[in-house]
What we know:
Elements: E1 5-9, E2 17-19, E3 23-27, E4 29-32, E5 36-44, E6 47-54, E7 58-67, E8 86-89, E9 93-96, E10 102-109, E11 111-118, E12 127-128, E13 133-138, E14 143-151
Parallel strand pairs: 7-14
Antiparallel strand pairs: 1-4, 2-3, 3-5, 5-6, 7-10, 8-9, 8-11, 11-13, 12-14
Amino acid sequence: MSSVGTIDAITFSPAAGTVGNGTAVAGIGGDLTGGVETAAIVSNSGNVTLSASTGGGSGELAGIVYLDANDNGHCDAGELGAPNLTVVLDGRFSVQTVVSGRFDFPAVASGHHVISVVSDNLPLPWTLVGDGRLEVLVTTRDRTDLAIAAHRPR
Length: 154
């Protein structure tokens, strides 16, 4: 048998009890790698089985909003970041870009997300590529880095 983590606490809920043939059922809480959302201990005739369902986990989402001076779609050396812009995650959570144009969401649930940049503080005549909206995939325990370009209309 292999171990995937540690269980910090065992809490028997008020709903703990028995189901058919004296099998005891109880909920537990703890921390396995990736986190535990649900778990159960089942004891039948002295045998104990632990089954756990790990949570979806989380990752980090970070990036830069930059002024793409040469309009090549890459953040090159010498291109400035866009400070004081609001970056919105899934229409619910927001952060501001710092002086360098960088932003960070340190703990984001794994899965598909939408990032939107509010361009109110973007210097004129710059505009965000794709209206500053990106769909991204965050994977468990990984860092997803984004580079969001602003360009000058020609």
